[in-house]
Amino acid sequence: MFHDRSKHIDTRYHYIRDCIEKDVLEVDHVRTNEQVADILTNALGTIKFVEFRLKLGVIPVHKD
Asked: Domain locations in the chain?
């Protein structure tokens, strides 16, 4: 079954694939426990949250 939504995904996939073939992009595997983007999408424990926050360059602001 064809949907407009899947057409959008297909277009994006083919663009990225073309960029990789033209050596414009390089794709690397990132292990699950190193996915910094998880800080934006998942509930994390304190240790992982602080680790990813530092990797993003975000510093805590403390109000006195």
From this structure: 4-56
